[in-house]
Amino acid sequence: MMLDLLGPFPLLLLLLGSWGPVHPLGAWAQPPTRAQWFAIQHISTGPVQCNMAMRRVNNYNQRCKPQNTFLHDTFQNVAATCLLPNRTCKNGQNNCHQSANRIGMTYCSHTGGTYPNCRYSTTPQNQFYTVACNPPQLGDPPYPLVPVHLD
Fold it and tell me: 59: which residues sit within 8 A by CB, 6+ positions away?
């Protein structure tokens, strides 16, 4: 009798209860592609304060990265560097490309603390940069080549 008064809701409650535990969205998400990881680690459209900016980088590996450089430019502009002439990378591969111009950057160096309380020095710079580039993976922007490593 009581089930009749509730209409279709008992069935809905039964179905919802049978789903089991709910997992956080991040537990099922795919890891970032190499180009997406490059953007997380190295792209910032303006100057950064390293203690804040490195939190996002360090959260992925749950450790204090010893050093990191943020390029003050867009991913699109850095990807355009991939269309410039090839040069040899530090690891001997031939998929690196040097920027045509100097750009603003922020260099971060770990000065102390352990994850998640990593501390960094912040050093503004204005330099050329070199990136390693590969063809895009599924989920990357549709550029001919995308940056995957700051050399």
Answer: 116
Q: How far apart are the first and last CA of the chain?
A: 72
Least confident piece of the model among 10-24, 31-45, 52-66, 87-101: 10-24
In a domain, 36, yes or no: no
Hey, which residues are catalytic here?
Answer: 42, 149
- The CATH number for 109's domain is 3.10.130.10
63 assigned to some structural domain: yes
Total number of domains constituting the chain: 1
Contact 47, 106 (CB under 8 A): yes
pLDDT of residue 30: 87
Structure tokens at 5: 């008064």
User: Residues near 1 by Cβ (< 8 Å), separated by ≥ 6?
Assistant: none
Q: Write down the pTM of the prediction.
A: 0.80
